[in-house]
Amino acid sequence: MADSGQHLLPPLLDVDDPAVFTVHNPHGASPFLLLADHAGQRVPAALDALGLPQHELDRHIGWDIGIAGTTRELARRLDAWAIEQTYSRLLIDCNRPLASPTLIPETSDGTLVPGNAGLTEAQRQQRIDVIHTPYHARINAELDRRRDQGIPTLLVMMHSFTPAMNGSQRPWQAGVLYHQDTRFAHALLRTLREEGDLVVGDNQPYSVSSTSDYAVPMHGEARGLVHVELEIRQDLIADTAGQQAWAARLERIFRAMQSELLQLQLQ
Ligand SMILES: [Zn+2]
Fold first, then answer.
1. pTM of the entire structure?
2. Over the range 228-239, which residues count as b (16 or more CB within 10 Å of their CB) and which as e?
3. In terms of CB atoms within 10 Å, which end of the chain has fewer, N or C?
């Protein structure tokens, strides 16, 4: 096996850098389980903000604006196990397969990321080993535990999207994303549309694939779990009031759907 050279690198995380992920409600009783891959915007101190000004890390390229607060509040309301990833998607995108060209992007939405230019294989592997791998290992450990103990899981990947991209406004307040398993997604799409006050994207603003996405194919489809990826428009959850409102709405919707979804899981 080739020497990765990684032992020659300084550690990615210092003692003062925060933990890679936070688990909320580790003993939550709800079948719903929430993942927030893009919750955080931190960059390890050693990488000096990847050479970016804070306002670049603050915009949607740095993280999913508003999703940490929304996920925490929804988890609290549902008493659901939830995990939020701490570091910026620009450091490494935890919802990308390792072979994705945008796993560690050199540019994002027109912004050059100096700290990602010309990385060595060892530097790339270090980010995988320190961030991506332990984050998904923690999710796998919880999903394994629930499977082994016969605890049902309804998996929700929580994301947010920017209202405008490439100069055009997006019409949706929320988007329901799925790949081949449509069980949860089609039920949620119908329910959200029945709310009456929402324009809901059907695999919009993105579609999911096994080459561009990690959580849906690996944690949802590979395990056969009933799952959905939910996208909420960022301006709706930018402040605490919006996060609370969306968490309340989703709590009501998920509680109403729960028994139907658990039946789907048994089929
Ligand atoms: Zn996201």
1. 0.96
2. bbbbbbbebbee
3. N
**146 alpha carbon – ligand 1 mean position (Å):** 25
CA torsion 45→75→180→220, rounded to 10°? 70
How many Å lie between the centroid of ligand 1 and the Cα of residue 261? 24
Ligand 1 centroid–CA 157 distance in Å is 9
Q: Which helix (H) or strand (E) holds 57?
A: helix 54-58
Return the SS3 of 112: strand
Give me the residues near ligand 1 (ion), CB cutoff below 5 Å.
38, 64, 159
The CA distance from 60 to 261, in Å, is 31
Taking the centre of ligand 1 as the mean of its atom positions, its distance from the CA of residue 149, in whole angstroms, is: 30
Phi, psi of 70 (to 5 degrees): -65, -45
